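[Q] Does anyone have a clean structure-token version of this?
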Amino acid sequence: MGDILMVLLPAIILGAVIWALTTALRPRDSGTSDAEKYQQDLARRSAEHYAEQVRVATAARARLEAKTRPSQNEQQQLQQEGNARAAQRAQSGTAAGHHGQSVAHGGQLDPQLALQLQTLARNGHKIEAIKLLRQATQTDLATAKEYVDRL
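[A] Here you go.
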């Protein structure tokens, strides 16, 4: 029995040392409790929700701006249409001899008059521009004001 103990005792010690080493070197749990895991998950979901809300708000703002701010080409086209309408109204409401100087062929205003009106309007003299337009084209006040406002 002594020989068996002599063989078993070192084997038991060797087994205990190997077990202790594997236990010491085994990867351990990160130490994160269930409450901490829940808080981390909640923070992640909250950040994702916030990012989605920002994306939706940005898209809505872009749609709103696209509807409320026409492009520069559209603004120019609207201005040209307004100018043409004002010239047509002026042409239809004027005497033939008087408006021949201020309204060119095709219902457009004389370029010199248009430049003078634009200069007055941009320098803050809209009333003078309206008066000049009404005198030159015999147009009504509302049409003249609309035309000058578009300059």
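[Q] Thanks! Anything notable?
[A] The chain has two domains: 36-69, 72-150.
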